[in-house]
Specification:
By secondary structure, the protein is an alpha+beta fold. The strands form three sheets. The protein has a six-stranded antiparallel sheet. The protein has two domains: 6-72, Orthogonal Bundle (Arc Repressor Mutant, subunit A), CATH 1.10.10; 81-316, GAF domain (Beta-Lactamase, 2-Layer Sandwich), CATH 3.30.450.40. It has helices at residues 6-19, 28-35, 39-52, 69-80, 82-98, 142-145, 150-159, 164-177, 200-209, 213-221, 268-291, 299-308, and strands at residues 55-58, 63-66, 101-108, 111-118, 133-135, 180-183, 236-237, 239-247, 253-260, 266-267. Helices cover 46% and strands 16% of the residues.
Amino acid sequence: MPRPAPQTDRLIALFRLLAARPQHGATMAEIARRIGVNRANLYPMMAALVEAGWLLHDPERKLYSLGPALVGLGDAASAGQPTLAALRPVALSLSEQTGLSSAVFTRSGPTVTLAELVWDLHAGAAPMRLGQSFPLRAPFGAGFVAWAGEAEIDRWLEAGSGDRAHLVDALGAIRERGFVVEAGRPPDDPIDAPAPSGGEEAAREARLSDRGAEALIEDLSRQSDSVLAELSASRRYRVRTLGAPVFDPAGVVTTFVVLFGFVDPVSGRDIHELGQLVCQETGRVTHGACAGSSHRLSPRSAESAHQSNGGRRDCHLHH
């Protein structure tokens, strides 16, 4: 476990606070209160950040906000992550077309991180924050491992919990149709069955929103059938998320685009149409990434892209 780094933690908390309210800023007193440090200790750090251009200080209103130097840093980060840059307009377009929220996740080893989020501010606080990380263990993150080798799939299954046989079947179904569907209840539970009484479902969701990433994954792991294997066209499902992958030239899933915020039950037929839409968008990004690479699209990547794009023939092209 890494050693505690209080100063670094405060710096991260500071930028998260100001990034959450870019149009408003915050006073020194508010920042000190929110990140849990007294003003005397906070002032030298704030002064250094203002001098570096990472923060702006309005002396009349006594407000601090994000500084212009961060724009250059953001541009540099985007240049180093061309796939993410390409997925920003994709996530926005998908939300506009479907009326749903969208998110883009990236993977680094055993961790999945929220990199982009399209969320209606009128709907209240977002359920996740940019930069929030989640452990990659079954059943969470099925889209990142569905096209992986047997050893990696075994590690994912062993790190998590749930019905192993069902999850193996679900991974096969994901590869076949090209996208992942997570349901709020098992697919064999009829959609018209009585809902939990006494506000149980609402209370559960409220508790979930207040818990950390680890607790969220633990909650998902108790729903062993949350990742759908079979999908009947005529049946309706309480969909939690629907997403599709983006591959690198080696055929590895590097990022994953997710739609969420489903309010009403969705038929299997409509789920399939939504899945095809997301697959088409992520398929274009996959081929764009491979076209910009010095390497040809590997046979494994071509086949993966073909499957994840709903079997579209143009996904078999080599670059």
